[in-house]
Amino acid sequence: MRARHLLPLIPVALALALPSGATAKTTWIVNGAGFGHGVGMSAYGAYGYGKHDVGYRKILSHYFRHVKVRRKRSSPTVKVLLDVRAGDVAFSRATRACGKRLRPTRTYRAHRSGGAITLTTRSGRRIEGCGKRLQATGRSNIKVAGLGRYRGAINAVAASSGSINVVNQVGVNAYAQGVLPGEIYPSWPKQTLRAFAVAARSIALATDVGGEGYGLYADTRTQVYEGAGEETRRTNAAVQATRDEVLTYRGRVIQAFYHSSSGGRTESRFLGAPKVPWLKSVRDPYDKLAPLHRWRVRFSQAEVNTMLGGYVDGRVRRIVVLKRGDSPRIVRAKIVSDRGSARIRGDALAAALGLYDRWAFFRKRR
């Protein structure tokens, strides 16, 4: 996801892909729009609605069709992979682990011993065998060395790879509090923050990556999750104002996808994924507030040849768009060179060229 921190970044390929000066006889110009995958709710679009005091439920119903905001009767927990460690996992502020009482002022370690985890002192003295999983709990946030502070429990799981999976088992509302500051700006309108709180909670409960001891990632593969140490007053207030609320379609919690900037129209699905009834392509009038609502980049002929060299040999002559989506985003294209041609998906083409989005139009200037 990452609707927030990616906004000011320039992809490495673009930073390197400046015109090469007088030696470049041909310049490729790419006019594009948006930043991200374009599916679901756009951050800057939701920001605009929030600035106009549109309620969070209406914001969500604009981007997701035929859905309802429902309150869960219970607050389930989620398991988030924080890290994979080859060595010991040091932690403090815990009061209990593996059936033993701990002193919160002391540091302890989860140590891999064969196929099991052992609880040890900071110096490595064995305290207790824990089986395949050590779970540490406390009265306040638990601190994990090298990672930060986290609500809920910290699990150290003996993975089949021989490493230790460091997992935060936490209530879904506390999880949302750790997500929002890393995904959007805490200074944004409260209705926007509330919309993202519901979306973040929904994604967490509708996703299961099937990992060893975890169901979610703490990065953009799921959502950026930074734990208790990055929480802010405004984002926590948004989570509490929408406590236990999720977005549902016919009673089932949905993956309420979001992205940074839509370019003015969202896309209805990911490439290769089936259509789902709650995802529709919609106009996004306030996306014009986004820094990357419209963008233009230039490449030299040599740079295009290099970046697309994994698909065709020789000099690239044309990029022919074969199909666009419900928005102008590229679904399929053909790269034509002086030695042949190759078909390519829109997302692969955007990645090869380092584009902000697959909403792109190509032309050459000699």
Can you give me a brief rundown of this structure?
By secondary structure, the chain is α+β, with helices and mostly antiparallel strands.
List its salient traits:
alpha+beta; 7-stranded mixed sheet; 6-stranded antiparallel sheet; 24 strands; globular
Q: Say how many strands there are.
A: 24
The radius of gyration is 24 Å
Helix percentage: 10-25%
Structural class label: alpha+beta
Mean pLDDT: 93
State the strand order across the main sheet: 7-6-11-14-15-4-16
Largest sheet: 7 strands, mixed
Give the uncertain stretches in residue-range form: 5-24
- Please state the overall shape, judged from the principal axes of the Cα atoms: globular
Strand content: 25-35%
Individual helix count: 8
How widely separated are the two ends?
Answer: 38 Å
Can you offer a commentary on this structure?
The protein is built from 8 helices and 24 strands. The protein has helices at residues 12-16, 43-51, 56-63, 172-183, 190-206, 233-241, 301-307, 346-353, and strands at residues 27-33, 41-42, 68-71, 77-85, 89-92, 96-97, 100-101, 107-113, 116-121, 126-129, 133-137, 142-144, 148-150, 153-158, 164-171, 216-217, 245-249, 252-253, 258-259, 294-300, 316-324, 330-337, 340-345, 360-365. It has a 7-stranded mixed sheet. Residues 5-24 have low confidence and may be disordered.
